[in-house]
Amino acid sequence: MSTTVEQPADFKFSAENKKKLKGIFAKYPKGREASAVMPLLDLAQRQHQGWLPRAAMDHVAELVGLAPMRVYEVATFYTMYNLAPIGENHLQVCTNLPCWLRGSDEVMGTCKKKLGIDVGETTEDGKFSLSEMECLGACVNAPMMQINDDYYEDLDEASTAALLDTLQSGGTPTPGPQNSRKGCEPEGELTSLKDSKGKADA
Amino acid sequence: MPKLTIDGIEVDVEAGLTVLQACESIGIEIPRFCYHERLTIAGNCRMCLVEMERAPKPVASCAMPVGEGMVITTNSPAVKKMRQGVMELLLINHPLDCPICDQGGECDLQDQAVGYGLDRSRFMEDKRSVKDKTFGPLIRAMMTRCIHCTRCIRFSTEIAGVPEMGATGRGEHMEVGTYIEKALTSELSGNMIDLCPVGALTSNPYAFNARPWELKKTESIDVMDAVGAAIRVDTKGPEVMRVLPRLNEDVNEEWISDKTRFACDGLKRQRLDTPYVRRDGKLEAASWDEAFAAISAKVKDMDGSKFAAIVGDMACAESMTALKDLTEALGSRNIECRQDGAKLDASCRGAYLFNSTIAGIEEADACLIIGSNPRVEAPIINARLRKRYLMGGFPAAMIGENVDLTFSCENLGAGTDTLKEIAAGKHAFSKILKKAERPMLILGQGALMRSDGAAVLAMARQIAEDNGMISDDWNGFNVLHTAAARVGGLDLGLVSGGVDSILDGCSSGAIDTVYLLGADEIDTDKLGNAFVIYQGHHGDVGAHRADVILPGAAYTEKNATYVNTEGRVQRARLAVFPIGEAREDWTIIRALSGVLGLTLPYDNLDQVRQRMLDINPVFGGDDQQTGGAWGDFGKAGSLDGGGFASPIINFHMTDPISRASETMAQCVEALLGEDKGKTGTDG
Ligand code: SF4
Ligand code: FES
Ligand code: FES
Prior knowledge:
CATH superfamily of the largest domain in chain A: Glutaredoxin
Oligomer: heterodimer
Number of domains of chain B: 4
Number of helices of chain A: 8
Bound molecules: iron/sulfur cluster, FE2/S2 (inorganic) cluster
Low-confidence stretches of chain A: none
Shape of chain A: globular
Strand order of the largest sheet of chain A: 2-1-3-4-5
Distance between the termini of chain B: 46 Å
Structural class of chain B: alpha/beta
């Protein structure tokens, strides 16, 4: 657990994020500041290279007026909060049934092979971390993975490898389907609702 | 009042109760793990399932409010099967290690497994295990045994008000702990051991020392502070193994402080087990006869006015009575129970009691704390204040050091300046007090130990009178004592010119013999060349300075009377015999009186208690709080300025027993280490 991780002694929000705090708190009624705990943790995580050190959780606790323990509970409950350092690109490969039927093994295998890491590990250069995810709700474009905030869909071995190469060289691949599909429309041409096409576009 | 039928029995119960409580009211026991009547309802263990008519599924009786016309079944085969099912689930990840578990013999899980458990496990997979956690020197954790009832979490959050416990992770990975692995800082943490229904949290100092069925249980009273919590002393042979709380709704409910619970190992260390006499500057073991002879040689024909006695914090009323009588027989009136120099006024009883009573705190609707830190001086009273705070509508403020009392309590100022403003009715908080129907104030020893203590006392009385704290059915003037012996001493009238005048007399030579009855909290350097007789149970400060030491009994070793800060007369009971040559304290003084030719007129405990009754009729009320008369006490005068400071700097070491306790020493160390690591963000 994160208790074995080397922890920074201090955490403060940057000037820019401090401005955002106001906007976040404004969303909640007065006296209910504690509700802001999750967006604040998210903000802190984004500021701190994608993971939440204890000092950040303590700081958030202070800001929202909760006991630190209550914040630890939230942060450990949700897997989206990382409590240990994480790679620059967090590869979150879905391996649930639809993705698996559509070849998530291939996607996962490619990541492992190309990066030389296993699930839960980070490459030595700190560029990639690999995680296994439960259904991310994009089964219609299975198999897929989430990299940081974006979804990359309709993957196969080649497109996964291409993604990793782009990231490796510092580029940003275009999110969405990595084959010829547009959104979640069928590959090739429409197979249903053909008549309504014009209307839908209007 | 809803009427419901439970197992065919019709009952009327109060609205708002739960089905579980309704069942209990007619003597039907419902098994439970997470439910506890003093904690919020969690409803997460499911052991309390019952059948409810027209409900498709079993209901958790602890979380189901009673309703008109409900039909509940608790004894059907289906209910039994449900309980068996829940039990099987609870045991899936439980290590079943009763033979090496300290909870064995007093474990809810073990008991209920006998009732509802299967005789073998059907679970073939790997059991979950949890890395052990550290909670500091008091609690030993074996978290693999935890069944996630969250009682400990709710206790620390709700009752103790120090929310350090929590559940991290989720699902199968949920773990109960502090997450950051630090020693718990609550003064009440030990109660979690009692609350934990399994062996996940057990007592660390008591680990692997005894099984519950080997212990002799004695119901007694605690003397580590002036609260007088009800305790049970568990002993094995001549040894006190542990101290547990007993139920007393009026005083401690079912909690005790960590000092009450864990300082008992101090009873085994640094004990005085034989008389000593100082010969050529060195204390040497002696017989009782030799010790008495040494005293007799000094005291026999002396001028009575040169004799003085100081009574310590843990003295029982019996020994104080005997010492008072002996002092008077010697021709002296110089006996003093206020060893900390507090300017308490014994002229009327209302002047030194916690008049509202502890349970009465729940009726108060505003509180002003003056020169006291109840969290360390009386954690149990602090818990009651917090309980009142949680009920809502309880504005509280303090004058003194700005400390965290675990409930919202505004700091108005450090000392006398603020007090004057309140007394003049000019402070904003005066308005709140004025408006309240049952306001109370708590006056700590920190405000009275000062040289202007009598004036502070008078001013506090004036504040009480001016703000409607004193009426026919309410007395909100509360003195919070720190010593178990103090109220008893005041009730017996053990007040003379104050401890300072005795010490000054010693320095100047006006007094040449001092009898210390367990008095260790004084500056012994000031005893000058006086001949010092020390009677007590520990080789502490007083004994080191003594010329003759008479070994007495600790509170677990005698039948003795103590009066708590409310004025409640309670009896401690002998659980083990005094060690070695030590004797019950009043008998020592009685024996000495014989040697001096001043034989005191009592030969047994009943006669001593009769004598106490003659001195003050309050001693007749066993376990009763008798209110105090009100009067014109204190001495108006000028105040010295400056701030009030609590006399207790170190909660874990306040008296000869806790100072001798290794466990308490470990606590001090653990918490000091904590301070060093502090980042400054935690209050
Ligand atoms: S440690 Fe004990 S009291 Fe706390 S949740 Fe686990 S079983 Fe319940
Ligand atoms: S199964 Fe992969 S996104 Fe739903
Ligand atoms: S006692 Fe009812 S759910 Fe635990």
